[in-house]
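go over whats below:
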Amino acid sequence: MATKPPPPRPAPRLYLATPVVADPARLVAELPALLAAADIAAVLLRLAPGDERSIIQRAKVLAPVVQNAGAALLIDQHFGQVARSGADGANVSGIEAMQEALPSLKPDRILGVGGLITRHDAMVAGEAGADYVLFGEPDSNGERPSADAICERLDWWAELFEPPCVGFAATLDEAQMFAAAGADFVLVGDIIWQDARGAQAALAEASQAIARGFESSLAHSTVAGE
């Protein structure tokens, strides 16, 4: 009896990083239309430096806007302010930060982990309970691996591990490549906000790029399985 082929993986979804936010007023006005126009699974709130109270207040303003659209709001790095702000979780960088964040976020909130230099680091994060691993984001010097190296890491993770993987795309071409490589989510940020056509047009194009990458991966899987 022939065995059934495994079900196709779900299509990757967008993960939108905000600009660096000092005053959330403009973003509060802009986000509802963006969240309605594209399939955005989550929003990563990047915050300008501030004291604990200001961080909480900025996140408090944005959380209901994001959540009412059916997306999750994660705060970048500031895991200690998640509970009081109403956010859904945090994204942290590196194993040490993950270990510090675990007690306050798990099991009720989302913990994503980037800054994973080695495969071993990624496996440690997955085994510790990270809700996703992030590959390809810039380091503190603004440097990041090549797109091919990020694709290789995404493909390796998607093939072997259960927790979702996220690819940080700095260009629309990378968004397509990472969707094809096995990313469950594609994180986009500055390429959306800096697009001269406006964020909504850029998001639409990013969605199309992800769809093309996913379709190409399905076609490749079908050919490989024949």
